Amino acid sequence: MKKMMEMARHFFNRRGFTLIELMMVVAVIGILAAVLIPKIGGTKDAAKLAGLDSNMRQVQADVHAVAHRYRHNAGELGSALQSVINGENGSDSENDINNPFNNSQYGATLDNTSGAVVIDSDGSGDETDLEKGQILVIINDDDSATDGDSNLDSVSIKPYDDNGVIANQVVTITP
After folding, report:
1. What is the tens place of the pLDDT at every residue in 99-141?
2. Cα 74 to the chain's mean position, in Å?
3. Domain residue ranges in the chain
């Protein structure tokens, strides 16, 4: 009993941790970090893809909003869609579409790859210069109209994911 009392007194009179105790704590923290860091990194990528999906849905809603007005004049649809996406029709400019992957591309551009949304008004579908996070809107028209105007055939919306290739959610809208 005396020996146990002496061990207990020695244990409670210590003023610090032993080297082995400190090494065990560092090892446990290292193991926890190794488990948690990959999960946190995946969350950031998932958020970027969710931002791209949100942009895609916004562009789809904008196309639905204006396509029926320009179904007999597809040539004007590109500039009208650009105005709607960029908020030039009096809408709230805080809802601008931006590229979730680089945060440097905003709004829509017509036949130019500098915006978060690229509107291809001639239907060529040139996808060579697009970057991850951009959305390509291709306006396909029917050139068989006799009055000089072209009828709107369809509008294809193609988002580009984090690898810079077409994501699996291409949407085609036919008015």
Report:
1. 888 877 788 887 677 788 888 877 666 666 778 888 888 888 8
2. 28
3. 14-173
| pTM of the predicted protein model | 0.69
Let me know the angle formed at the C-alpha of 76 by 71 and 81, rounded to the nearest 5 degrees: 90
Query: What's the pLDDT tens digit per position in 64-110?
Result: 888 888 878 777 888 888 888 887 755 444 557 888 888 777 888 87
Query: Two tokens at 4?
Result: 């146990």
Of 109, 110, 107, 114, which is closest to residue 122 (Cα–Cα)? 110
